[in-house]
Write a structure and sequence with these properties.
This protein is mainly α and 67 residues long. It contains three helices and no strands.
Length: 67
C-alpha cells in the first residue's frame, strides 16, 4: 500500500468515526469498497490541488463530500 492510499483510508475512517455519516455502522469488509470509491472521486475532484497539502485536501473533501 502506498502512503497516499494509507493516508486517505486513515482520514476516511477517522472522519466516519467522528461524524454522523452513512458509513458509520458498516463493517470493515463493506466499507473497504467505499474507501476505494471515495479515493477515486477525491483524485478527480476540485479538492485535489497542488497548492495545498494532501492531508488538507483530503480533509476538505471528506468534510464536504462524505455525509
Amino acid at each position: 500500500m502506498k502512503y497516499e492510499m494509507f493516508l486517505f483510508s486513515q482520514l476516511f475512517m477517522k472522519h466516519v468515526e467522528n461524524n454522523d455519516t452513512q458509513y458509520q455502522d458498516l463493517a470493515y469488509d463493506l466499507i473497504y469498497d467505499e474507501v476505494l470509491k471515495h479515493r477515486e472521486l477525491f483524485l478527480k475532484s476540485n479538492f485535489n490541488v497542488d497548492v495545498r497539502s494532501e492531508y488538507d485536501c483530503i480533509e476538505d473533501y471528506l468534510s464536504n463530500e462524505v455525509k
